[in-house]
Design brief:
This protein is an all-alpha fold. The chain has 2 domains: 121 residues, NADH-ubiquinone/plastoquinone oxidoreductase chain 6, subunit NuoJ (Four Helix Bundle (Hemerythrin (Met), subunit A), Up-down Bundle), CATH 1.20.120.1200; 52 residues. The protein has 8 helices and no strands. Helix 1 runs antiparallel to helix 2.
Length: 176
């Protein structure tokens, strides 16, 4: 079970790195799905099969479809892609890379050096998750929903066309 946890964790980290480093948005989205599936396997190995199912249904399903719609709304051109490539210079990503290496070194130290006591896996019931989400964490769930809606509205306004397009049936009326 431990080997599965570490393999799934490594796959999640590698897939997430590939999401960040991909220039093609669809390729990045596919790596994101792989990352979500790997995280679902991690949840499953930790004794949370319900959270694993939610990870697949909500993130790998609904959120990825939402991202596809946002990509289609933005309608990126070749110039936009070239401008994004120019932003990915080492001066931009060297700081976060150093911080990530520090966190990775800390994680390796915790896994290798410290002897962890045997953990007991306890399965989490669906009712307990529902009570937690709609009990003390209800405000957080609602704020996440508002944040997602704000992101969709912002993406729409960024991606809309500059000139007003008149439908062909309305053009005839305007010309008369």
């Amino acid at each position: 079970m431990e080997a599965t946890f570490y393999i799934a964790g490594a796959v999640a980290v590698i897939a997430t790195l590939l999401v960040v480093m991909s220039y093609n948005l669809i390729h990045a989205l596919l790596y994101l799905v792989v990352s979500f599936l790997a995280v679902a396997v991690v949840f499953f190995t930790l004794g949370a099969p319900f959270m694993a199912a939610l990870e697949i249904i909500i993130y790998a399903g609904a959120i990825v479809v939402l991202i596809i719609f946002v990509i289609m709304m933005l309608n990126l051109t070749y110039e936009d892609v070239q401008q994004e490539k120019s932003w990915l210079k080492p001066s931009v990503w060297i700081g976060p890379a150093i911080l990530s290496l520090v966190l990775l070194a800390e994680l390796v130290y915790l896994v290798v050096a410290v002897e962890a006591p045997g953990t007991v896996s306890v399965s989490v019931e669906a009712a307990a998750v529902g009570m937690a989400l709609y009990g003390p964490y209800m405000l957080g769930v609602q704020l996440c929903g508002i944040l997602l809606m704000a992101g969709i509205v912002g993406a729409y306004h960024l991606g809309r066309q500059k000139k007003k397009i008149v439908h062909r049936f309305l053009e005839r009326r305007a010309a008369s």
